[in-house]
Amino acid sequence: MPKKPPQQLLTTGRGATRNDRPNRFGLATREADGDWLDSRNDVDGEAPPLRTTVTVEHPRTIITRNASPDVPFDRSINAYRGCEHGCIYCFARPTHAYHDLSPGLDFESRLFAKPDAAKLLRAELSARAYVCQPIALGTNTDPYQPIEGHWRITRSIIEVFHETRHPFTITTKSDRVLRDLDLIAPMAARGLVAVILSVPTIDPATARTLEPRAPSPAKRLAAIRALAEAGVQCHVSIAPVVPQITDHEMEHILEAAAEAGARRAFFLPVRLPHEVAPLFRAWLDAHHPDRAAKVMATIRSIRGGRDNDPNFGTRMKGEGPWADLLRTRFQIACRKWGLNRERFALRTDLFVPPEGDQLRLL
To answer: What is the dihedral of CA 106, 108, 318, 302, to 10 degrees?
Structure first.
């Protein structure tokens, strides 16, 4: 008997339309019982809303190191695993497979929090061999996703940075970053922080399906304005650019961000590693069936004939005529709106290691 294709789950307020279990690690694939799926509407009616759950995680360290030649930082912190924003294109989705959870709806609804992050950070910054370099927040999952309002882990991390005068960057899709402006603004005055607001689209209708639980594009642009007015170095990230879906917005996003006060910008073509590719294809079939084939054909032209290009050097910028055109458009728009005119580097010379329980003598 042929295997049934995975069920589409058009769950209100969620990005993924599937919740397939991972099978990259030799684990048995688990499938929902077909009889239950057939009778659900007749017997039970529609399923209840998908609830978000949070599991406490206790890692031994909190700073993640990387040696990637095409990533502009060598260390990062992620306060949470999984992300409720539900962005369908998120390249971090496959990390849930390591927990035998789905990179689909599980990634958006079964989250992990690291409440000991500040304590671990303090210990790692206290190490004698520690050399200060900027730490990136929000490189895998958003540090200001909705659960930060309760857990406040990101704020506790920034409090350690504030105390030790340690440089850091924040990448987020949320205007919730403004809640920590009392800590961020004084550090910005010392050249210790930069905030990157991710704005892949400024069309509300597109945003509702592409990144369903992230704050609206208008709120993000307003956050750029508020940060800039407070003296915070603010950048805009058009990441990702989705061909045939959002690419026509590039110039409009750069114009709006520059007018709000952003000083630098960058873009990334959409990446579809591992389980992200089938999830993205299912999303296209559900929301853009009229152009799904064209979108994927363009993505493959950027990615060397594949859904994804994992190679250093090309994975972040793509290749071929489509990628070249995006770069040309981006450069022209940045020149027009005065973006990327100045180099920017965070200071590392002000760092003071944590004092710990015993005060320093000198």
So the answer is: 70
